[in-house]
From TrEMBL:
<dbReference type="InterPro" id="IPR006674">
    <property type="entry name" value="HD_domain"/>
</dbReference>
<dbReference type="InterPro" id="IPR003607">
    <property type="entry name" value="HD/PDEase_dom"/>
</dbReference>
<feature type="domain" description="HD">
    <location>
        <begin position="508"/>
        <end position="630"/>
    </location>
</feature>
<keyword id="KW-0378">Hydrolase</keyword>
<dbReference type="InterPro" id="IPR002934">
    <property type="entry name" value="Polymerase_NTP_transf_dom"/>
</dbReference>
<dbReference type="InterPro" id="IPR013546">
    <property type="entry name" value="PII_UdlTrfase/GS_AdlTrfase"/>
</dbReference>
<dbReference type="Pfam" id="PF01966">
    <property type="entry name" value="HD"/>
</dbReference>
<protein>
    <recommendedName>
        <fullName>Bifunctional uridylyltransferase/uridylyl-removing enzyme</fullName>
        <ecNumber>2.7.7.59</ecNumber>
        <ecNumber>3.1.4.-</ecNumber>
    </recommendedName>
</protein>
<feature type="domain" description="ACT">
    <location>
        <begin position="859"/>
        <end position="940"/>
    </location>
</feature>
<dbReference type="GO" id="GO:0008773">
    <property type="term" value="F:[protein-PII] uridylyltransferase activity"/>
</dbReference>
<feature type="region of interest" description="Uridylyltransferase">
    <location>
        <begin position="1"/>
        <end position="391"/>
    </location>
</feature>
<comment type="similarity">
    <text>Belongs to the GlnD family.</text>
</comment>
<dbReference type="GO" id="GO:0008081">
    <property type="term" value="F:phosphoric diester hydrolase activity"/>
</dbReference>
<dbReference type="Pfam" id="PF01909">
    <property type="entry name" value="NTP_transf_2"/>
</dbReference>
<dbReference type="GO" id="GO:0006808">
    <property type="term" value="P:regulation of nitrogen utilization"/>
</dbReference>
<comment type="function">
    <text>Modifies, by uridylylation and deuridylylation, the PII regulatory proteins (GlnB and homologs), in response to the nitrogen status of the cell that GlnD senses through the glutamine level. Under low glutamine levels, catalyzes the conversion of the PII proteins and UTP to PII-UMP and PPi, while under higher glutamine levels, GlnD hydrolyzes PII-UMP to PII and UMP (deuridylylation). Thus, controls uridylylation state and activity of the PII proteins, and plays an important role in the regulation of nitrogen metabolism.</text>
</comment>
<keyword id="KW-0511">Multifunctional enzyme</keyword>
Length: 950
């Protein structure tokens, strides 16, 4: 394995040179106080044991001292995480010895039969048995007897356990005879694994030694096979529970894929098969198995083991409990404690998490290296290798155990690196498995991929794997083995790279592979219901290879500073010709990478009813083929971000952008013909209202300005007409209508009321109190002075806000807010709650004014930390500055809110005065600021007062 990926990074958790001497002194001093402690507890040599209450006080003080000593040494960076875990276990051993001695003294035999009762051995199992303990870990104990436990042993066990519980320790325990142990181990792999870790603490050592003899013999009789199969099944289930991807941005340090438990599994397998105590025992020709590890791999295991233990220790101390998931709130704290500081444009926490993900990848690679080697060494050599058909033999491949390997004895990956790609293609084409030993060889020889960069066959094979069946599977294997980073050097810079936000679920490399997986789902028509347009367009594309390459490279330049789209486009220009793409394909890939965010940013941040918006995109895209490619790439990119990002509403917005731009590119109705489009919309509405009296129909048609007619379809215009007619007939000052749009995963809220400044803000506040999240809004003032505002909302889970009782409450809250009977600020403060783990993620507030995006409105884009009521605060600031909001486009990316407003001044003009814009900026930045401690927020008083008066 390459030094760069298996430890080339310098750990920020490195410790001073003096630590070795201090560790030795600390460990040497650990048992020195135990004889005095035992003497004090038991009253030796002549006295009686002290009372239990006094013993508890004494033991508590001792336990507190040893825990504090370990914590002080660790936090002073005198001990690494692994050294601290070992020292804590060693100090706990002394405590257990003292407790055992006290129990012997306090539970004397009651009769001669109990005096002759066989003794027991107190044995450590689990992590404690391996000689390592985390600050808040359980202590796993086995009370081991030769035969079944007698009355005195049972009383002693009970005495010890109650003492440990009263000390506040979490204890896992069992009382078994040697025979019971063997029988339970045969039935339960968890028990068997605990016994693999068994370590003598105190008591009758001969009992423990007899146990070791019997257990060793039993392991030899049963063989490694059943244990290996059980541990693999257990690992698969564990990964499914804690995250099957090793690149989740909130990883589980202990149980997640690539975590401590995976390293422990390797230890268990080696100990079960060869009775080894430490991984370095597997290095060298004379070692068990004949040298299963190289010295470099053994060092990599130790580095990973030490790094993960250091992270775990920090996590426990920061959380004050046995916390194993590295959530967002802990990441910056743990990273800072480990010395990760900002470097360039990369935050310290992102550097820390990248090191963690690289370590996790190393664990995965080490598992693929060592596990098959242990299996092969324990179970014997593979079945006789035989060549397959002539094509396989000519490619330099063969079979071993029915799986693909490089053909022995003269063909191997180090001498012929091209075999690494040939074996992947053969496995895909023939639906065969690659032998674990071949994957092991892939990992060890990945650095030879550098020699393939300019080979035409290698580039052809790579493109075939990228664009062929199950491409994500083979890319993921190339990534985990390290091949991809060597073959495409720019890829190495995004491996393990994360963005410290709650929007992106995966690291950049894993997100990219996920995007290619989604692209293949689209091709297989598996996403017809959720992405119908992309599924329809995929079969019309003429530039399939370019699309796959763009998906591979769209985020290749993240983490470098600057615009990753521009940098990525330049990388594509250099890389694509090397991989064998034509000049035309290279230009297409570069263009797609440069503009891969265009469709999504337009859909979520711009008013697509504004003619200039659609025209600008059409001028940039120019080609229907490019538009199709861009739409498909956008869908794949968004769905690969995480399971909660994609929803029906966003799919609808993307479709509308596509069809409007496609209409222009196809030479249909020209966008500038606004009057024609308005006239057609009015005619369509008139047709829908043909049964109405002419006077009523004409009155409704005269009430809408041009923007209103272009914002809705004829069906919606007809619904609005009926709503207005009913409101006027009943003289209702306020009308609220709700409509669930299941196909779009939103609920449409329509409000008809007298227009006045601050109306939008009050409605937004009421919706926030109701628990509704606004995803889009249209605001229209009619010629009769009434406002017809439409909001599209979702619930907290990203679905339609459709519960009847919640919709009823929402309508009441809107009415109360507009009548002034609802104290919005107080009610919003009550719902301003978020998980503690998300509070560490900060979003710098930003306000951007754009007077070029629209010919008729000033476009305001605000970025800030999302919270309930944010839209109310921001729109109150806008209204407080005397501006009218024409439309709002609301988008959230995790905890980041990106809201865009189209506004005019009181004269119906753009806001271009610099002093006015400066004043507006101040008010909006105040609205974006975090709420004050009292929950009142920090929106400018004047803005709020103006909105409240309105």
């Amino acid at each position: 394995m390459s030094r760069a990926r298996l430890g080339g990074m310098t750990s920020a958790a490195a410790f001073p040179a003096r630590a070795t001497a201090q560790r030795s002194t600390a460990l040497a001093d650990a048992p020195s106080v135990i004889p005095d402690l035992i003497a004090e507890l038991t009253g030796a040599p002549d006295g009686s044991p002290i009372r239990r209450e006094a013993a508890l006080d004494l033991l508590r003080r001792h336990l507190g001292r040893i825990q504090l000593r370990v914590q002080d040494a660790f936090e002073a960076q005198e001990l690494s995480g692994l050294a601290s875990a070992r020292w804590l276990a060693a100090l706990t051993d002394g405590l257990m010895q003292a407790i055992h001695a006290y129990a012997v003294a306090m539970v004397p035999p009651r009769n001669p039969a109990e005096e002759a009762e066989p003794p027991f051995a107190l044995v450590a199992t689990g992590g404690y048995g391996r000689g390592v303990l985390a600050p808040y870990s359980d202590i796993d104990l086995l009370f081991l007897t030769e035969q079944s436990a007698g009355p005195r042993v049972q009383r002693m066990v009970e005495f010890v356990l109650y003492l440990l519980w009263d000390l506040g320790l979490k204890v896992g325990h069992a009382t078994r005879s040697i025979r019971d142990c063997m029988e339970e181990a045969g039935r339960d792999t968890t028990v068997l694994t605990a016994l693999v870790d068994a370590r003598f603490l105190v008591g009758d050592r001969p009992v423990f030694e007899r146990f070791l003899e019997v257990f060793h013999r039993t392991r030899q009789e049963r063989g490694l096979g059943p244990f290996l199969a059980a541990k693999r099944a257990e690992r698969a289930g564990r990964h499914a529970r804690y995250g099957d991807s090793p690149y989740l941005v909130e990883p589980h340090v202990k149980e997640g894929r690539g975590g401590l438990r995976d390293l422990q599994t390797l230890y268990w397998l080696a100990r079960y098969a060869f009775n080894t105590q430490r991984m370095p025992e597997l290095v060298g020709a004379d070692s068990p198995g004949g040298g299963l590890l190289t010295e470099h791999e053994a060092r990599a295991i130790r580095r990973a083991w030490n790094f993960l233990w250091t992270v775990r220790f920090h996590l426990h101390y920061v959380a004050g409990r046995a916390e194993e998931r590295l959530t967002f709130d802990f990441q910056p704290v743990v990273g800072a404690r480990m010395g990760y500081t900002p470097r360039g444009r990369q935050d310290g926490v992102e550097r820390f998490m990248k090191h963690l993900f690289l370590t996790v990848r190393d664990v995965l690679r080490l598992t693929r290296v060592l596990e098959p080697a242990i299996e092969r060494a324990a179970l014997g050599p593979p079945a006789t290798r035989r060549h397959g058909d002539a094509a396989l033999a000519e490619a330099g491949l063969a079979f071993a155990d029915g799986k693909l390997v490089a053909a022995p004895p003269n063909r191997d990956f180090s001498r012929e690196p091209i075999l690494m790609l040939r074996i992947l293609k053969a496995a895909r084409d023939r639906k065969l498995e690659i032998h674990p030993l071949a994957i092991r060889a892939l990992i060890r020889n990945a650095h030879h991929a550098t020699a393939l960069r300019d080979q035409s066959e290698a580039n052809t094979l790579f493109l075939d794997l990228l664009t062929g069946k199950d491409a994500a599977q083979w890319l993921r294997l190339m990534n985990e083995t390290g091949f991809l980073s060597r073959f495409i050097p720019d890829w190495a810079r995004i491996v393990g790279l994360m963005q410290f936000d709650t929007y992106h679920v995966f690291t950049v490399d894993e997100h990219t592979i996920e995007a290619i997986g989604v692209l293949q789902q689209v091709e297989r028509n598996e996403l017809v219901e959720v992405a119908p347009v992309a599924s329809e367009l995929i079969g019309q594309l003429q530039s399939r290879r370019a699309l796959y390459m763009a998906a591979l490279l769209h985020d290749i330049a993240k983490g470098r500073g600057g615009d990753h789209s521009e940098l990525g486009a330049r990388i594509a220009t250099e890389l694509c010709p090397r991989l064998g793409l034509t000049p035309e394909e290279t230009e297409t890939v570069s263009w797609l990478v440069l503009h891969h965010l265009l469709v999504s940013q337009t859909a979520f941040k711009r008013d697509i009813e504004d003619p200039k918006t659609v025209l600008d995109i059409a001028d940039l895209v120019q080609s229907p083929e490019r538009l199709r490619l861009l739409l498909v790439l956008t869908v794949c990119d968004m769905r690969a971000v995480g399971p909660k990002v994609w929803n029906g509403w966003k799919a609808t917005l993307l479709r509308e952008v596509y069809w409007r731009v496609a209409e222009v590119l196809a030479g249909g109705l020209s966008v500038p013909e606004r009057d024609v489009r308005v006239a057609r919309a009015r005619d369509a509405a008139a047709a829908m209202l043909a049964a109405w009296p002419a006077a009523e129909r004409d009155a409704f048609l005269a009430r809408g300005y041009s923007g209103y007619w272009l914002s809705f379809d004829a069906d919606t215009h007809a619904r609005h007409a009926a709503l207005i007619r009913e409101a006027e007939a009943s003289n209702a000052p306020l009308t609220v209508r709700t409509r669930v749009l299941e196909s779009r995963a939103v609920t449409e809220i329509t409000v008809y009321a007298a227009d006045h400044p601050g109306l939008f803000s009050r409605i937004a506040g009421a919706l926030a109190v109701a628990g509704a999240s606004i995803v889009d809004a249209r605001i229209h003032t009619l010629t009769n002075g009434m406002a017809l505002d439409t909001f599209w909302v979702q619930d907290a889970a990203g679905g339609a806000f459709d519960a009847p009782h919640r919709l009823a409450r929402l309508s009441v809250l809107v009415e109360q807010a507009l009548s002034g009977r609802l104290r919005l600020r107080e009610e919003i403060c009550k719902v301003r709650r978020e998980p503690a783990r998300l509070r560490a993620v900060t979003v710098p507030p930003r306000v951007v004014f754009d007077n070029h995006a629209s010919n008729t409105h000033t476009v305001i884009e605000v970025n800030g930390r999302d919270r309930p009521g944010l839209l109310h605060d921001v729109t109150a600031a806008i209204s407080g500055e005397g501006l009218q909001i024409a439309s709002a486009h609301i988008t959230t990316y995790g905890v980041r809110a990106v809201d865009v407003f189209y506004v005019k001044d009181v004269f119906g003009l753009k806001v271009e005065n610099e002093r006015k814009l400066a004043s507006l900026r101040v008010a909006m930045e105040a609205a974006l600021a975090p709420p004050a401690a009292d929950g009142g927020g920090s929106v400018a008083v004047a803005a709020r007062a103006a909105a409240d008066r309105a």
